[in-house]
Specification:
Number of domains: 5
CATH class of the largest domain: Alpha Beta
Radius of gyration: 31 Å
Strand order of the largest sheet: 5-6-7-3-8-9
Shape: globular
Number of strands: 18
CATH architecture of the largest domain: 3-Layer(aba) Sandwich
Helix content: 40-55%
CATH topology of the largest domain: Rossmann fold
């Protein structure tokens, strides 16, 4: 165990944030910390990192355990260059390398050879320091730096780029790159997927899956949590609860737990009702008074089960339209945008169409111009070349991820009511209540709101617009997991046309019917959601590689014939047979592994039917967690087996 958090409590005045939170982190464990906005997740990380004190409780960590903590949106502030900042992480190894160079210089000095003892001591020192340098990864410094910088999207940046010249999002990504290079025993990350495009997200997932230490991560990215986490810790109503498995598994276990607890509660309530009725009927009858008194005592001594608390209150809203558009909604043709002072356009040759009722996603790497394209569509930016044409009866609704359309000094009520002054105050307050702004919350200033609260204000305004075409720029940014699900439900029921930017792959999978991928030279179009796009790209790449292989094979045959050199068919045949034997052995191993896993799953499922453990929820949860792990391994084994067939 690397870390033990015991009974941590944190309050701000009378407002309790955390209550008796306990948590343990094991070696190489990947824990996802989840909960609604304001649940106290970031507060808990700050307490563990020592940046904030708790009112009570204790934190114990294993001796020599190094903890690395990256706060949410904490951009790297430095006067150094990118290269200098990354190399500073390895200052101890760089100093050791300089010492080795100095020892090498001494060893090469003939004067040292005359003093046998000093010469032997120097050689011994060099051998020990050299071994330590190698064990600590000294020879891989440049490789590690280049790999992480490339993965985090800095591959094209000059090493001497000053960090002070980077944007806020770039500084945040660079801070994440630095902490990855530091490689602490426990890596604590607060919303690390903010400001990352899909390519960088995919790389980060892969890197963290192979990370040698433990990870405690706060994230609202469900795809990321499913890919990385093997444990979920939920903070809800100020307390914490641990679940085995990834995010999807946590949702299943939580639902099953609620159902079991509700059945136990209802069963006890039925029993209490029967006992109370028996007491009322029999307490005054001489023949049954003793039995009634006995039941009454049993009722008084009964350890009553509290009614299970359901889900927290969620926002509720729908997007309605005043009237439908015509069939053709939007046509963008050969669009390009070039900003003043730039030689090259941000993008060019962008063409696509939207028809009534479509849900289309726009994706692409950071900095390619996705938000700029949306601003051109809604008329905030004039394109350099090309045309944007709307169909009939189009009424646009635009969601800006930067929330620039909100006025900082307004209250929540003023912000929404000022946009729709013809509506009654009661109607505005009802709408805000649906977006979780109730009572005095509506009098908060926009400037004091969190990112999630500002997003809910913008969505409230958007809902009231009754637009039949929604243009959304990263609508799930800043929303907690519950709010994302509510937004998805509202958009799935929306009868208008939807065009949106998102890096949230779960959201893309659930919403997108078609994907437009933006690049410097134009757009690529894919039918289906994100996973279907990835599969299509994989098929295209396989066809390309197969074509190249055939060309190379044809070329080598032509060369052999023209040069009149006989091919060594014996060696080729021997190699082919060797590869076939390896393939068959691998298939046999996988089939045995599949059979073993299926048997384990079957045995565990039989245990779930055992009456002895039916009411033992902790044991049920453990067994279900084991089944989930085995099923994941089984799916991976089947996938690998199919590749060999």
């Amino acid at each position: 165990m690397l870390l033990q958090v015991s009974n941590i409590t944190k309050s701000y005045g009378v407002n309790v944030v955390l209550s008796n939170i306990s948590l343990q982190v094991l070696e190489r464990e990947r824990i996802g910390l989840v909960g609604v906005n304001g649940a106290g997740k970031s507060t808990l990380l700050k307490i563990i990192a020592g940046e904030m004190s708790a009112n009570s409780g204790a934190i114990h960590k294993a001796k020599e355990t190094k903890i690395g903590y990256l706060a949410q949106n904490s951009g790297l502030q430095s006067n150094r260059t990118i290269e200098a900042e990354m190399r500073a992480v390895f200052s101890h190894l760089i100093e050791a390398e300089q010492e080795l160079r100095e020892l090498e210089r001494r060893i090469a000095d003939p004067a040292l050879h005359d003093d046998e003892k000093r010469y032997a001591d120097t050689l011994d020192r060099y051998a020990k320091r050299s071994d330590w340098f190698r064990e600590q990864g000294g020879f891989e410094i440049n490789t590690r730096i280049n790999s992480v910088l490339h993965g985090m999207g800095f591959g094209s940046f000059a090493p001497d780029t000053l960090i002070s010249t980077l944007s806020g999002g770039q500084k945040t990504r660079l801070a994440l790159a630095r902490i990855l290079l530091q490689a602490p025993d426990l890596l604590m990350l607060d919303e690390p997927t903010n400001y990352l495009d899909i390519e960088t997200l995919t790389w980060l997932e892969s890197y963290l899956r192979g990370y040698s230490g433990a990870i405690l991560v706060v994230s609202h990215d469900r795809y990321f949590l499913d890919a990385l986490a093997n444990t979920i810790v939920e903070i809800e109503r100020h307390i914490s609860k641990r679940y085995t498995g990834n995010y999807s598994r946590y949702m299943e276990l939580k639902a099953a737990e609620y159902e079991i607890n509700m059945k136990q509660y209802e069963k006890q309530q039925d029993e209490i009702t029967r006992m109370e009725q028996f007491v009322q009927r029999n307490i005054v009858r001489a023949s049954t008074t003793k039995r009634a008194q006995s039941r009454r005592k049993a009722l008084e001594k009964m350890d009553r089960i509290d009614k299970p608390m359901g889900d927290l209150k969620k926002a509720y809203f729908t997007f309605e339209i005043e009237r439908p558009t015509g069939k053709d909604v939007l046509a963008v043709d050969d669009l390009s945008i070039t900003f003043d002072g730039r030689d090259k356009p941000l993008f060019r040759h962008v063409s696509f169409q939207l028809t009534r009722g479509e849900t289309v996603a726009l994706i692409g790497p950071n900095g390619i111009g996705k938000s700029t394209l949306l601003k051109a569509i809604v008329g905030q930016i004039e394109p350099t070349t090309g045309t944007i044409r709307f169909g009939t009866h189009v009424k646009l609704g635009y969601y800006d991820q930067e929330q620039t359309r909100l006025t900082a000094q307004n209250t929540v009520l003023e912000e929404v009511w000022g946009t729709y002054p013809h509506m009654e105050e009661a109607r505005i307050r009802t709408v805000l209540g649906n977006f979780l702004f109730s009572g005095e919350d509506v009098l908060k200033r926009i400037s004091s709101l969190s990112g999630g609260e500002k997003a809910r204000v913008s969505l409230a305004k958007l809902m009231l617009a009754q637009a039949n075409v929604l243009i959304l720029d990263e609508p799930t940014n800043h929303l907690d997991l519950f709010s994302k699900e509510v937004l998805e439900s509202a958009l799935l029921d929306y009868e208008g046309t939807l065009f949106f930017i998102s890096h949230d792959r779960y959201f893309l999978n659930k919403m997108a019917e078609r994907i437009v991928e933006l690049g410097p030279a134009g757009t690529e179009h894919f039918l289906g959601n994100y996973d279907e796009m990835i599969e299509k790209k994989r098929e295209i790449e396989e066809v390309r590689l197969e074509s190249l292989s055939k060309k190379a094979s044809t070329g080598s045959k032509s060369s052999a014939i023209s040069d009149n050199i006989p091919a060594n068919s014996y060696e080729a045949d021997k190699q082919a047979k060797r590869e076939e034997r390896i393939r068959q052995r691998k298939i046999e191993q996988l089939e045995q592994e599949i059979a073993d896993l299926e048997q384990k799953i079957s045995d565990l499922e039989v245990q779930l039917t055992d009456p002895a453990i039916f009411n033992d929820y902790i044991r049920i949860q453990e067994i279900q967690g084991q089944i989930g792990v085995h099923k994941a391994s089984l799916a991976a084994a089947y996938e690998e087996w199919e590749q060999y067939m």
